[in-house]
Design a protein that fits this description.
The structure is a homodimer of 389-residue chains.
Chain A lengths: L2 H14 L15 H14 L7 H14 L3 E5 L2 H11 L5 E5 L5 H9 L2 E5 L11 H4 L7 E5 L10 H11 L4 E3 L7 E2 L2 E2 L6 E5 L12 E5 L2 H10 L4 E3 L2 E2 L10 H11 L2 H19 L5 E3 L6 E2 L5 E5 L1 H4 L3 H9 L27 H9 E4 L7 H19 L1
Helix pairs in contact in A: 1-14, 2-9, 3-9, 4-5, 4-8, 10-14
Chain lengths: 389, 389
Amino acid sequence: MNTAFKSQVRAMAASMGFPEAVYVTRPNLPPLDDVMNTLKPAWDRRWITNDGELHIRLETELAKRLGVPYLNLFCNGTVALLTALKVLNLEEGAVITTPFTFPATVSVLYWCGLRPVYCDIQPDGYNLDPAGIEALIGPDTKAILPVHVYGIPCDVAAIKDIADRHGLPVIYDAAHAFGVRLRGESVLVHGDLSMLSFHATKVFTTAEGGALATGNPELHQRARVLKNFGITGEESVVAPGLNGKMNEMQAALGLAQLDGLDANTEKRRRLDGIYRRLLQHEPGLALLDMPRDVDPNYAYFPVRVQEALFGLNRDTLYETLKAFNIQCRKYFYPLCSSHPWCSAKTGTLPRAEAAADEVLCLPMYGQLPEAWAEKIGTIIKSLGSLARI
Amino acid sequence: MNTAFKSQVRAMAASMGFPEAVYVTRPNLPPLDDVMNTLKPAWDRRWITNDGELHIRLETELAKRLGVPYLNLFCNGTVALLTALKVLNLEEGAVITTPFTFPATVSVLYWCGLRPVYCDIQPDGYNLDPAGIEALIGPDTKAILPVHVYGIPCDVAAIKDIADRHGLPVIYDAAHAFGVRLRGESVLVHGDLSMLSFHATKVFTTAEGGALATGNPELHQRARVLKNFGITGEESVVAPGLNGKMNEMQAALGLAQLDGLDANTEKRRRLDGIYRRLLQHEPGLALLDMPRDVDPNYAYFPVRVQEALFGLNRDTLYETLKAFNIQCRKYFYPLCSSHPWCSAKTGTLPRAEAAADEVLCLPMYGQLPEAWAEKIGTIIKSLGSLARI
């Protein structure tokens, strides 16, 4: 950027910048007193983990709310995903997945002796492209691991069709997809298992936390056993298990949050609307398509920055917004396939590479004041105008 | 047991039985208000995981209190132990360990592509016998994984000598050994890494939780990176990592508990004394030897039951005590080596097998009323007398 632009930005930031950091997300926390009141009975019982009453209640409530037959709570989503691989007895071989995801999706493969085979993303979206899967299936392919990126459902029908024809299990990384519905039913009913994350950055949080959802009672039962050391009775341990348990403090936070979830989604919807109104006709900015058959959760607000039209590239916009105290995130840059330890040889991934270079996620959380979203959108518009002069 | 004994037990239980279950342990919980007051600043900051301020404080406080140079907190002890194996790059091959332990010690080996080679326990204790290790070392031996069973330190000098001569790393499963000192220094300074558990059943608890302690700054740093997805910077992921993070709710529980820890240990010490006074001269009962150079944590009160002298075998005593509402635990029965999925071919393990058949852990936790310990000891004595008539 030239010197004139820089000095104009400095002047703008002095007048329009936020006095303190605006984070890309903040956890949706109920009042601490509510958490405490929920936790108190567990404290009085002195039963603070190991399938406590709050844990049981949260599992039941979430399965009902999300519309899935079976749900296992976990200490975090990564351990849930690792356990899912073990539930399906996946050891050695290749798993077809997307490079456009958080590193955990791919890391857990290595922790299981598996390796990723990367499939590019859709031409018109950010999810794994079903049209690319079949060419990647080989004799040692063990499973397909797509990600519902930004909570937008994958092409589940096409993926199921391929998986069925090749006899491959499908595990969905649904870390972003809490509460998302596709054609009126939970997105979690697709695939053999779906992993949810309840990390502090997610729309529903238990500080750390996660879950495995499934429609298959046998997989559900196996997940339950594996997350508790393989124990099935006081003197019976049937498999090498892990500790994947969620404790009662996490469960209390989850329970205390349920009543406010719909209101939180509504706030996010309004913020999403504000950003869209301001940015949708901005040259060089492409917003996330919300398919008509999806009830979204408004978890993220990704913006695709095309330098030639907008006037700034994504990285410059990201850095420039920092001068306004606006902390965006480059979800997902770098691509998983670009880390040396997980650069499986799968040729080029042009669409994923472009997305990794161009996407910026704007601040999005229920407590973000609408005026702040207005201001963030306005600042971005102004920066584009300024850059295009 | 004959009918007369059974009817006498019924009569005794009717008069001496506890009105409600006496568990083998209960968590040492500070008042919930203390936890809340500790947690409040994190709530106000809306920062509830990812190296929060409480997490940092707890790591610092525990390292100081325990007397170890470096400590990493984890979501639980099992994930900590799994991470320790990855910190040392252990993949494929054999690890020499003890069958007399909780299944997690051995499970994590399988989750890393390793397999256990079992070494018998000491003739005069419950820990892995150094005299048995060397014969088990083969070309694919990768490490030694001893357990400080019941918090009694292993023969760390002998193990170090063998490990050094063979160039093998040593990971201690110190799940039971919080606060234990050997010859005036922390037992955690031995080995390359030590794993602690803060599960609700342990002397210090964060509901679920654990830690890796080490004296080696490089191993410490690698553990820190691996437990956070391998992330070293906003755009740098250097290895396949996992999520092993402890959250701020767990850290708050830990912090709120620190002031009361010494008093809790003192209560345990008194209960230990009561049991010893009552049971030490009882025929057929052998109590845990407390080595003179150890400052113990009184985490467990294991009793070894020799049927020929006591009059009842361990299993009958265990079942009979249930009639009094006394819930003991057979730590560790069955042996890990007896589960079909981890029965490595290592010949017989006569001492571990005898221990697994004969040990019973009595109720032991700070809030156990001394009168209850008196009564439990008295009931056990009476049952022995009755059985020997």
